């Protein structure tokens, strides 16, 4: 007897069986189609790169999350990609450095990380995204948020919510009206993350207290944020958010959590998180940033549709199957396939239409329900 | 100044820029569509597995070709997949062990290997394939060859050639009319590989000489092979090949190289290699085999469309782009996207339609050529 555990997959890795694979494929294509329709050209970077090339375009901490190994060809360290945004940034800065700006690129592919976590034990994910390279304006941000919504809606998501954030908010305030030195800045950020009013005051961030309450439904939260901004240092940011919100005009429920930082460490003035009804956790996020290594401004989003696949796979249609008996009419089968039928040909007398999941059988050149 | 070499990709790995990515995406989808239409359900195995789980389903030598690394979660060795056939075999033997047979599965994904070679320096490849699990009969082989042709034709390949082989030919003859012991068998195989008549005689394989000439155009080569088979031990195999050839009926140029072994080490009675006009090297291969670990019979093929992408990328159409001026009519743009237009929206006054690769501009609610 063989050891059944030898067929197990490593923790956090899984096979997609037909229903799940069909959902993932349909969702990936719908998202790529939506991005393509808005002028975003797909690029396909490799699974593996030099660790150094990836790490200099992302924070050092992130490289610790990558699977790494030595390249026998170069004797340098390679890494399995954990994020395709970094790769698209590299492409924009190298192979497409002479392409006109703004440059619109999109991508879809598998990414892996060395450890999962409690909230998200998966170590492999499908990542799908778009990058608008050369611009980080309000107009760019508006296009990107709208496109992210269009992409997830094309994939079948409904009840979309978008949570806005201002990733450089604390820095902007600390450099301006509410001064904080480096150490205090870190402490204030930490207390804002946990929304702990007492801790915030203790950390020397009493001026920042109102930020804790400038959250929730977008227009009222933006009002509160505006009220706090007596110096006007946030005026263009708040105005930018309002213009994006106006542009979205009811397409999504909008909220604001201006001091939300988690996952926005590399964004500049604007960030957003996307949610959909009946989909666990967040569906993706995006914002404005500078491409690591080239410092070109850019705006983009990444979607991680795993939970959307989970939500949709049970009802995913694989297409009705038509059984082709032995000695069937081949041109008739060709014609039915061209119409969209999926055929299953008998290989010998033992093959049975119903057992093989067919709902129809080819009879007299036409599909007949079983 | 930054070091420009830090942006280089490792040897044998490359980015697909828009033309190449569009060709790869179209080709991959066309192949998946053809396989889906013949009743093959897609599965999506993970990028990474336990090395042991992969290696016990493939020859030990092959695992040396895989990128390997230690899993911090299990402390076991993981491998980046170098072949998806092995993974589909595992799925058939585990997650889908209770699914009715014959089981039709297909797949498409990136695979990587640790070293390229002179003929094929790429270390990452797109692999696309189909597996018919539970059967290795002439009918199964016929369906699989026909499907492989349909898949590459759907992807745009023309002038298809199929080269048949009989992977267990030497074993069948050596166990029967032309006995050879283990050592002599190896030597005879080696000399047949190089088609060296003198070497073959020296290796004790004089009986096998005629095999060197039973190659080329299918019907005449099959005649020669049949003439050599006085004991009749190859009769069912030759008859099987003839039935497959008849079934293909002019859809491809057919040749026979009965003792070809390269890449068919794990096939049983039947193997084939696929070529297309204007595509360098082989496009794919397939045959009958036993699934490693479960010993279930199966028939399948793997396509490696990299060179087809190379041949087609220059003429790949990315779709005409329609420029949307500032303050454009959004519902009109939605309608044109729904018709298949790709739009590029102006973000500010500096954006120029022609510079951004647009051939048309939205004017009065309609697409107008620039």
From TrEMBL, chains A, B:
Keywords: Glycosyltransferase, Transferase
Class II Histidinyl-tRNA synthetase (HisRS)-like catalytic core domain residues: 12-308
GO molecular function: glycosyltransferase activity; histidine-tRNA ligase activity
Lineage top rank: taxon: Bacteria
Positions with a binding annotation for L-histidine: 83-85, 113, 127, 131
Gene Ontology CC annotation, any one: cytoplasm
GO biological process, one term: histidyl-tRNA aminoacylation
Record has Hydrolase as a keyword: no
InterPro entries listed in its UniProt record: aa-tRNA-synth_II/BPL/LPL, HisRS-like_core, HisRS/HisZ
Gene3D superfamilies, alphabetized: Bira Bifunctional Protein, Domain 2
PANTHER family tied to this protein: HISTIDINE--TRNA LIGASE, MITOCHONDRIAL-RELATED, HISTIDYL-TRNA SYNTHETASE
Name under which the protein is recorded: ATP phosphoribosyltransferase regulatory subunit
Organism: Aurantiacibacter rhizosphaerae
């Amino acid at each position: 007897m063989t050891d059944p555990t030898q067929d197990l997959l490593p923790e956090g890795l899984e096979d997609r069986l037909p229903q799940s694979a069909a959902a993932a494929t349909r969702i990936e294509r719908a998202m790529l189609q939506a991005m393509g329709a808005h002028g975003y050209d797909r690029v396909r970077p490799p699974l593996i790169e030099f660790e150094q090339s990836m790490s200099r375009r992302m924070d050092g901490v992130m490289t610790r999350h990558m699977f790494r190994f030595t390249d026998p060809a170069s004797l340098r360290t390679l890494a399995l990609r954990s994020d395709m945004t970094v790769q698209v940034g590299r492409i924009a800065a190298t192979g497409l450095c002479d392409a006109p700006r703004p440059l619109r690129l999109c991508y879809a592919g598998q990414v892996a990380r060395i450890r999962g976590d409690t909230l998200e034990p998966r170590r492999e994910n499908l990542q799908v995204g778009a990058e608008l390279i050369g611009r980080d304006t309000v107009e760019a941000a508006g296009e990107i948020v709208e496109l992210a919504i269009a992409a997830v809606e094309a994939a079948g998501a409904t009840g979309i919510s978008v949570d806005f954030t201002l990733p450089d908010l604390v820095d902007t305030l600390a450099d301006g009206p509410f001064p904080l030195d480096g150490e205090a800045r870190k402490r204030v950020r930490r207390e804002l993350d946990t929304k702990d009013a007492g801790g915030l005051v203790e950390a020397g961030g009493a001026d920042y207290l109102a930020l804790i309450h400038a959250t929730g439904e977008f227009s009222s939260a933006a009002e509160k944020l505006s009220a706090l901004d007596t110096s006007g240092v946030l005026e263009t940011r708040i105005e930018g958010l309002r213009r994006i919100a106006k542009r979205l005009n009811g397409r999504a429920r909008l909220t604001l959590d201006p001091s939300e930082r988690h996952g926005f460490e590399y964004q500049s003035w604007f960030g957003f998180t996307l949610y959909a009804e009946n989909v666990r956790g967040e569906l993706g996020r995006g914002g404005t940033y500078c491409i690591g290594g080239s410092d070109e401004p850019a705006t983009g989003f990444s979607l991680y549709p795993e939970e959307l696949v989970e939500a949709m796979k049970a009802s995913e249609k694989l297409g009705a199957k038509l059984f082709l008996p032995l000695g069937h009419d081949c041109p008739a089968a060709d014609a039915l396939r061209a119409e969209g039928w999926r055929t299953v040909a008998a290989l010998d007398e033992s093959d049975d239409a119903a057992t093989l999941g067919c709902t129809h059988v080819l009879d007299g050149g036409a599909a007949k329900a079983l």
